[in-house]
Amino acid sequence: MFPHLTHGHRKVLEALVRHGTAARAELAEASGYTRPAVTNLVRDLMDWGLVEEDNGAYVHTGRRGQPQKPVSLRSGAAYAFGIGFTAGALDLVAMDLGGRVVGRTRTPLVEPTPRAVLEAVQQQLESAYGKSHVVRWRQLGFGIGVPADLPPEQAQAWTLAYRREELISYFANNLEGPAFIEAEPLACGIGERVFGIGARYQTYLIVHIGLEIGGALFIEGRPFRGGQGMSGAGQIGQFFSEAESPDGRDLMKALTTAGFGVGDLSDLDILPEAAQGVIEDWTHSAAARLSVGLAKLSPFLSPDAIILTGRLSPSILKALAEAMQLGEGAPVVEASRLGAFQTAIGAAALPVFCNLLPQG
Predict the structure, then answer these.
(1) 3-state secondary structure of 145
(2) What span, in angstroms and rounded, lies between the C-alpha atoms of 105 and 92?
(3) Regarding predicted confidence, which is higher, 233 or 124?
(4) Contact predicate 27/20, CB 8 Å
(5) pTM for the full model?
(6) pLDDT tens for each residue of 19-53
(7) Measuring CA to CA, which residue among 191, 209, 216, 240 is closest to residue 314?
């Protein structure tokens, strides 16, 4: 979509993702380029409609001449779609370049197969285009976050097809735009990098809590993928004993034992008020167990932060983060603020990350 982007353009865009609105002098410092070079790069980005000046603000640089107008990403310059799904439901979001959700839907999913996911997305797209006012030629593409805890036979089918790059071509050929596919924890991590609190940190660990616990490591703002594709780096569940793993299945078991039966993590949103005590007790217990496992892992990885993401509600993730205690000198623990659609939002960040930001 933007074939003229050089590494320099991408570094400036990355700095704007990280800092929001910034003066050219600040962009020069953040990107490592000289001020004259950044001025030329920003001019290109403005000509292509990706960046705009804030006409209501000025920045005094201490140098002679007129004060500078800060610049920022132009929200309507580009759009991306994100797809997240579980065994029984599919989320579709449309995001603009400024990180604003301009359309979202949650629909039942017959089964978590590539064909069923494609058909569900196709059914929702026309409505999403109309409601979000997304201009098709400004579309960056489609991102898909593949759950790590699908039934074994379906998980194997997704993983094998992903390794052969069949899924990428399958979705790209059947949707109007390129497709980008990642495992759900890594997609959520990229979502934090582009649209969330991950932009504050250079190195951070994603802890993704679904029916199981997954993870992703970001070093200098880039995901560490390991050497095994979707089944490689990020499998941190082994740091917690299988019998006491503080994951979504454990929470569902606690609720069922207390008489509040739930069939999926999405049911947590419709539980009666009486179930909150059970959730609070589980949260404190899970935070203690998470702390034990991550206290062993974090000194080895030494991230700046640990970010909790997943399919638990934002309020539970926040309570977990606040209750965790990793000890003196440990990284800060934060909960994702991307909300209930965070997997789909993370997936929508994939086209932005791959198309606009530097990859090396």
Answers:
(1) strand
(2) 5
(3) 124
(4) no
(5) 0.88
(6) 888 999 999 998 889 999 999 999 999 998 899 98
(7) 209
